[in-house]
Amino acid sequence: MAKKSRLSLAFKVLREEGWLAEMRLPCCQSCAWSSMPFEHERGPFKGQEVDLQKVIFMHGQSYAWYVRDYDANLHHGGNVKNLKRAVEILEDHGLEIFWNGRGDSSISAYDREAYELKLAASSSVTGN
Ligand SMILES: [Zn+2]
Question: Is the distance from CB of 111 to CB of 23 less than 8 angstroms?
């Protein structure tokens, strides 16, 4: 993933809207939540308190799945109204969203084009 992925570009926009949006927090959900910073460490809201209703992230395990499948399993703070806005931003960046609209369910954001490019690249290496 040399160039900026759709997901990282969407996360940048989310940070501009005051979200804590991180591609890779530690390990699993419980480790990620326990390591959540109290203040933004980057982006335009640096130094300000993190709103736990505007948190969206992958942890180490979901990041590994994302690198393999380009299907980002996004955890979040559970505020449905905020999450609908986050979904808009993700969709604006060309990601396919699978989500049941519930605050207690993770959001899947799939980068189909990146995955298909990856498949094409691997078949051109092995085939001829
Ligand atoms: Zn863990």
Answer: no
The whole model's pTM is what? Answer: 0.92
Helix (H, G, I), strand (E, B) or coil at 23: strand
Handedness of CA 26, 33, 38, 14 (dihedral sign): positive
Query: Whole-angstrom Cα distance, residue 61 to residue 53?
Result: 22
What is the distance in A from the centroid of ligand 1 to the CA of 90?
A: 26
The Å distance, Cα 34 to ligand 1 centre, comes to 9
7 contacts 42 by C-beta, under 8 angstroms: no
Distance in Å, CA 127 to ligand 1 centroid: 39
Q: What is the pLDDT of residues 80-106, one digit of tens each?
A: 999 999 999 999 999 999 999 999 999
The whole-angstrom separation of Cα 95 and Cα 9 is 11
How far does the centroid of ligand 1 lie from the alpha carbon of residue 93, in Å?
Answer: 30
